[in-house]
Structure formats: structure tokens, C-alpha cells
Amino acid sequence: xxxxxxxxxxxxxxxxxxxxxxxxxxxxxxxxxxxxxxxxxxxxxxxxxxxxxxxxxxxxxxxxxxxxxxxxxxxxxxxxxxxxxxxxxxxxxxxxxxxxxxxxxxxxxxxxxxxxxxxxxxx
Length: 123
Fold this sequence. Notes:
Radius of gyration: 13 Å
Shape: globular
Distance between the termini: 40 Å
Largest sheet: 7 strands, mixed
Structural class: mainly beta
Oligomer: single chain
Order of helices and strands: EEEEEEEEEEE
């Protein structure tokens, strides 16, 4: 049984930093595509970043240069380091895993999801 467990969310002031983590079990994170999505109240779930095969990364425009996605294969854990946070980053952050290395933009294409961790940025 695959489980993805996020942690590390919290409240931070604008301009601050946070790192969220996603520990995987029953699934080898280097075998497919891993991503971070986020969903703010009243908005659709949006893909923030992904890493495929542990090498290729992608970021949505609004977080480029501020967020870094990485993974520790030994710990089977995915990370998202977030810096220069602003109020528009406030959302529930979810990690997702795909059995293939195709990193779809559509949430419905992803095979596994974590329960989410809340990130709140105050100005």
C-alpha cells in the first residue's frame, strides 16, 4: 500500500522560508514522477513543481527562483524548499506520485496523493 505523508507546513511572515517534506512508503520515489501541488480556498489545485527520475525538474512561473524541489532517495522523501514567501503562496500543499515518468498537469492523472500540509503566509 502506497502512502505519502507530508509535513513541515506552518505559518510564516511574508519574505520568510519553509520546507515541506513528503515521506513515501510502498513506492520508490526515484522510479516515477513526483510533484507538489497546492490548492488555495476557492481555487483549483495547481501544480507547483515536479521532479522526474530524480533529475528533471519543472516549476510553475510564479515560484521560479523561489522554490526548489528535491528528493533524498535514501530516505525516500521529497522536499519543497520555499523562500521569499508571499500571501499568494498560502494554500494546502500536496505531494503526488505517478507510476510513470510522465508528469501531467492534471491532478486526475496522478496515482497517489498525500493528505496535505497547510502553508499560511501573513503580510
